[in-house]
Amino acid sequence: MSTALIERWRAHLAHDRRRSVHTVRAYMATAERLLAFLEQHRGEQVDAATLGRLEQADLRAFLTSRRMDGIGNLTAARELSAVRGFLKFAGGQDARVPQLKGPRVKRGLPRPISPDEAMALAGDIAETAREGWIGARDWAVLLLLYGAGLRIGEAVGLTGDVLPLADTLRVTGKRNKTRIVPLLPQVRAAIETYLAACPYPPERDAPLFRGARGGPLSPALIRRAVQGARGRLGLSDRTTPHALRHSFATHLLGRGADLRSLQELLGHASLSSTQIYTQVDAAHLLDIYRSAHPRA
Questions:
Q1: Is 101 in the active site?
Q2: Is residue 190 classed exposed, middle or buried when 0-12, 13-18 and 19+ CB atoms within 10 A define those classes?
Q3: What is the pTM of this model?
Q4: 104 falls within a domain
Q5: Which end of the chain, C or N, has fewer beta carbons within 10 A?
Q6: What is the pLDDT of residue 285?
């Protein structure tokens, strides 16, 4: 296996493409699986030149072997996408990537929760926290997800340089892209209440939201808190931190927000990622119709 090629692929993903640690790890694993398979399948050492001679049959055989490992359509589609990216990188400007149609993946709709559920969830987590300042912290983080549409990683990634708070907030999202989101008075007040109670003074280059010992707040802690609260409140398994972001988008769209504005607020790279919320809103209206109309 060409370890040098794998290492160049890792550096390209991490530094040139600015992919997340999780994405880099997943794409490297795919490349390593592909090279290991090809060496056994073709009975020869695999290098960049070998990859440039691959045919559809080679990729189909690789996906078949992965299917035998038990992967589903979604994983197979992601695997094929990663393989294509790796082959383009290995071949350079003259790369020839065999065309192979991936498996059809049914795209699921985001599942928002109601405003009452969102507030009940955040309130329960704040009230059951072991310390008052931790409850204020979790309340502020969850309001950022629901009230500003942040991803959980974006919320816990905020640093002290966002202070003093204003009517808007600069957020760094995926691929280090920044965007400006409005900061509702309630959300700003929640953050300020947390800062006043937090035993660790804010520092410009330090995390805004701290863990119990003063380190960066882990998204896993928020996810576990949400899991516990939804059990206590009897909410469904779809009640997750990311569902708050979905709810933000769905409720804005339902109140007349246009797709382009919503795209900017959510930090989506393409409009197609945002358009799925039109289906969510239609599905929500249909649910209301079916439950309320006497003839439904």
A1: no
A2: buried
A3: 0.56
A4: no
A5: C
A6: 47
| 268 belongs to the catalytic site | yes
Tell me: do 57 and 204 sit in the same domain. no
pLDDT at 206: 93
The domain in which residue 263 lies consists of: 115-292
Note the maximum CA span of the chain. Answer: 69
Q: What is the block-wise mean pLDDT of the chain (296 residues), using blocks of 10 residues?
A: 81 76 81 89 81 84 86 76 84 75 58 76 86 92 86 90 88 77 86 94 93 93 90 81 75 56 56 52 52 50
Please calculate the CA angle 281-287-291 and round it to the nearest 5 degrees: 150
Letter for the amino acid at 68? M
E-strand spans in the chain?
168-172, 178-182
d(CA 141, CA 138) in angstroms, rounded, equals 5
Q: Could you say which of 151, 179, 246, 284 is catalytic?
A: 151
* Residue 151 designated active-site: yes
174 is catalytic: yes
Q: At 76, which amino acid appears?
A: A
Residues 6+ apart with CB under 8 A from 54: 38, 87, 98
**Which entry of 111, 137, 246, 268 is annotated as an active-site residue?**
268
- Out of 8, 10, 174, 223, the active site residue is 174
